[in-house]
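Before the break, one more example. Copy the sequence into your notebook; we will annotate it together after we see the structure.
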Amino acid sequence: MKRILLIMGFGALIYNTSCNSGHGEHTEEETKFLVTSPARMDTSITKDYVCQIHSVNHIEVRALEKGYLQSVFVDEGQLVKKGQPMFQVMPMLYEAELQKAQAEANFAEIEFLNTKSLADSNVVSKNELALAKAKFDKAKAEVSLAQVHLGFTRIKAPFDGIMDRFHVRIGSLVDEGELLTSLSDNSKMWVYFNVPEAEYLDYKTTINKDSLIEVNLMMANNKVFQYPGKIETIEADFNNETGNIAFRATFPNPKGLLRHGETGNILMKVPYKNAMLIPQKATFEILDKRYVYVIDEHNTIKSREIQVAAELPHIYIVEGGLKEDDKLLLEGLRLVRQNDEISYEFVEPDYAISHLSLYAE
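Here is what the structure looks like once it is written out:
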């Protein structure tokens, strides 16, 4: 009796083992992979370029006459208005020259009037009258010149702007042309950035000539400047050493946040019309080349190299190597090998693109 029970228990164990083994094989056969196709849609990428920020008007303020610096009417970093006095060079010498010129002009005027009276009475010739008139005109010109020199001793702001640091102090002896300070008009800012030749050609072939491309500025604190700018100018020549050409964008600066000499990054959107998009996680890399697994009509996996035109978060824009009706392995790239035959479930491209959370493997 015990032998019969032992045989029956052993048989049940074999049966259960067989069932479990068969169930495992069935599960492996039913494993399905997610597959999708490339999506077609309009999109854009944001390219960034290192930039230099300049005031729309930045000049050096220099002494126009030689002399001792008598007064400074402004302070470093101060906002000044057009025509506001900034510096005064000691004017006594030029005041004396003006007084001398005015005295000589008065003498020449009296001489001219006397000669004119005599000429009217035919006492002197017209040539003597013309000579007296020329001397009087010369004396008036000397007065005007002395007034100009005297005016040069007071230096005024040529436009609204912000003062830079002083290079001289009160009492300093300054020469004609010596640098006193700098003045910046920061109401608008010119931002220069370099663009490679290929991107310049793409820009020129796609831009609408009647509109200006809008760009943004990423400041040094990694925050985007609140006012967008527009590309207004491209320089004439390429830099032969770098292969780049300089673009200039103009930004309004009503709050004065930007200053001359700052740096940052220009953010420019580049549109892609009817672009082919695939998830990054559907790709893998071998020796700096990008590949995908394509499923053929026999459900067999084949690797294929693709050409990536641009990169978005979680997405590649593909410019070569794929067709719209190709089926791509979306997940489980590390679980398969070349020429494996798989069972799969197809995911619509739009759904696959909109539910991405992983990068390429």
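Residues 92-120 form the longest helix (29 residues). Residues 283 and 292 are 5 Å apart (CA to CA). Try to locate both features in your own notes.
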